[in-house]
């Protein structure tokens, strides 16, 4: 399965390599101008190799004639060939490097060495509890900025990681919540917690400099300004053993100078199955399978005839024996003979009726559908000399391919920074999340064993819960529609995750910062199984309440000093954390109807 709303995107390098495979960018031509005219226009062919300052080839570098559509891209060895007009110049460029413009003149071979862009080297990368310029890095760090992030119009944080961060393995999830597994070093590496298979290799998540204990569904992708992935031990050392599987750092957006900016975005997408699964169809397909299965069970598959086989397919000398074995000796009516064979397979009344009428179903039509996903976001931001603010509000309503499964969430974020003095800043990064997992979904895990001659409802009856079949025919599994149809539930979750901080610049180039981050996490669960479900002997209501409170506090001291071309950085950290689970609340009520008595029994726990 895959989500139709998830776009299979490529990084800019992937796109360039794709251009390499296609061999060139579009060149201008005129079919009616004739061979001699084209030769006058393109009469110089140049070739060469593009390398970096370490003499390593640069694949995917662009070689083009400015002001025209004439251009090409270097191959995997950094080589190119291009035919251009006489007396032209070419521009050689690649992301992260300084572009070069070269006058061709009489040259036919032009080899170019590109130098790293000064701007790229000066980009700030978040590492640990501080930042560094990219040119000063020695560890394995990947940085992706907001422009690259928003290029792909992500609908979830997992999409950001999958489409923009190279070297990060991100799975896929068809659930409405859409939170797949992901890891930095691959699933084959040593697991941090062998007892927790799903999260054993999950990297540590850091949000705005603070370790984040929630899941990715809590973070609105539209608030992300940059993503930094720390891969090696040196880059993530400050986090200790928690960073065994690497660190993924999300930095959210802040206000910018200028007039206040109001941004609104909306997206509507569809999620559907990649293809229909192969199941047994009505007619000979399912009947032959049932025949083979029953003959295998009865160890009669090598016999010249069995009562499970089609009467007309066996040797005439055994047909009288077949009729006798099926309890209809001497029968000549084809319909009665056919029904006798069907009775060997334990068909229920619904199945027999549909078989005789030539009606069959594919249970995938009852258990899967095309889900709709909607995302709406609005943000307000601005900045003055003293105050920077960024506020966002997001709403998502998502369905999955599984009928009945939905996920609704509201996210809100406020980033506020106030400069009380040139040396003293306070602020708050506050996130609120509400989640609703919706009603009970219809289980679709066993659709392959359901009979193609059965459906969830009684034949010819309105498709209401009162007319549901008790058991799915052809299996020992109950009708998957029964429990969800008689169940009412509310699964909600509230999370508040604020960070309050203060930062002061001290003499000598020292910066002291302290922050405090409490996290409030409240689960509310309500289930009601109503009267009327034939699968439930007892009508029951259940309510659960769980709350969790945790906090962490960080105090960091940073010192950064430049000596000519040399820089020294120092970071000291004190961290404290505590997690507390509140006493869970649980109320369960079972309703037992006693004969001639209008009483109910309550079980409280």
From TrEMBL:
What subcellular locations does the record give?
Answer: Cell outer membrane
Q: Which residues form the TonB-dependent receptor plug domain?
A: 133-247
On the tree of life, the source organism's domain of life is Bacteria
- One GO cellular component, as annotated: cell outer membrane
Q: What is its main location?
A: membrane
Q: How does it sit in the membrane?
A: Multi-pass membrane protein
Give the matching InterPro entries.
Answer: CarboxyPept-like_regulatory, Plug_dom, Plug_dom_sf, TonB-dep_OMP_SusC/RagA, TonB-dep_OMP_SusC/RagA_CS, TonB-dep_rcpt-like
Keywords attached to this Swiss-Prot or TrEMBL record, sorted alphabetically, are: Cell outer membrane, Membrane, Receptor, Transmembrane, Transmembrane beta strand, Transport
The entry assigns this protein to a family as follows:
Belongs to the TonB-dependent receptor family.
How is this protein named in the record? TonB-dependent receptor
- Which organism is the protein's source? Cyclobacterium qasimii M12-11B
């Amino acid at each position: 399965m895959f989500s139709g709303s998830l776009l299979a995107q490529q990084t800019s390098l992937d796109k360039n390599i794709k251009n390499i495979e296609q061999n060139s960018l579009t060149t201008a031509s005129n079919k009616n101008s004739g061979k001699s005219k084209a030769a006058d226009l393109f009469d110089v062919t140049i070739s060469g190799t593009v390398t970096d300052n370490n003499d390593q080839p640069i694949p995917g570098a662009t070689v083009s004639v400015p002001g025209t559509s004439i251009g090409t891209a270097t191959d995997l060895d950094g080589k190119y060939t291009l035919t251009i007009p006489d007396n032209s110049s070419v521009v050689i460029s690649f992301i992260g490097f300084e572009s070069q413009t070269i006058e061709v003149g009489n040259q036919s071979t032009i080899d170019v060495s590109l130098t790293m862009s000064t701007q790229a080297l000066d980009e700030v990368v978040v590492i640990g509890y501080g930042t560094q310029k990219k040119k000063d890095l020695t560890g394995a760090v990947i940085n992706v900025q907001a422009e690259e992030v928003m290029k792909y119009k992500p609908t979830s944080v997992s999409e950001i990681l999958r489409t923009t961060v190279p070297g990060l393995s991100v799975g896929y999830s068809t659930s409405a919540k859409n939170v797949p597994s992901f890891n930095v070093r691959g699933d084959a590496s040593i697991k941090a917690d062998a007892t927790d298979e799903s999260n054993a290799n999950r990297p540590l998540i850091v949000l705005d400099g603070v370790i984040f204990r929630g899941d990715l569904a809590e973070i609105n992708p539209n608030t992300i300004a940059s993503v930094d992935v720390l891969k090696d031990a040196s880059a993530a050392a400050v986090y200790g053993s928690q960073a065994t599987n690497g660190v993924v750092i999300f930095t959210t957006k802040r206000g910018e100078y200028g007039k206040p900016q109001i941004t609104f975005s909306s997206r509507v997408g569809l999620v559907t199955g990649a293809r229909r699964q192969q199941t047994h169809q009505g007619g000979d397909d399912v009947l032959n399978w049932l025949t083979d299965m029953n003959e295998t069970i009865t160890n009669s598959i090598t016999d010249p005839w069995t009562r499970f086989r089609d009467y007309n397919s066996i040797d005439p000398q055994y047909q009288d024996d077949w009729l006798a074995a099926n309890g209809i000796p001497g029968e000549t009516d084809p319909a009665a003979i056919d029904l006798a064979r069907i009775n060997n397979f334990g068909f229920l009344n619904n199945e027999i009726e549909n078989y005789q009428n030539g009606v069959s179903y594919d249970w995938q039509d009852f258990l899967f559908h095309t889900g709709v996903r909607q995302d709406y976001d609005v943000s307000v931001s601005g900045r003055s000399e003293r105050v920077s603010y960024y506020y966002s509000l997001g709403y998502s309503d998502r369905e999955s391919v599984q009928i009945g499964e939905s996920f609704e969430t509201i996210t809100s974020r406020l980033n506020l920074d106030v400069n009380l003095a040139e040396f003293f800043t306070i602020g708050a990064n506050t996130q609120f999340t509400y989640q609703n997992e919706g009603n009970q979904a219809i289980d679709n895990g066993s659709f392959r064993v359901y009979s193609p001659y059965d459906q969830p409802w009684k034949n010819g009856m309105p498709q209401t819960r009162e007319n549901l079949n008790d058991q799915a025919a052809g299996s020992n599994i109950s009708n998957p529609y029964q429990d969800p149809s008689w169940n009412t539930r509310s699964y909600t979750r509230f999370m508040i995750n604020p960070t309050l901080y203060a930062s002061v610049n001290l003499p000598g180039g020292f910066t002291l910062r302290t922050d405090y981050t409490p996290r409030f996490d409240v689960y509310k669960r309500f289930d009601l199984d109503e009267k009327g479900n034939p699968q439930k002997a007892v009508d029951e209501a259940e309510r659960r309440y769980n709350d969790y409170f945790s906090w962490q506090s960080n105090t960091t001291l940073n010192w950064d000093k430049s000596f000519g071309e040399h820089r020294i950085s120092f970071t000291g950290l004190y961290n404290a954390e505590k997690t507390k689970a509140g006493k869970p609340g649980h109320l369960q009520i079972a309703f037992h109807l006693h004969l001639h008595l209008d009483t109910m029994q309550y079980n409280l726990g």
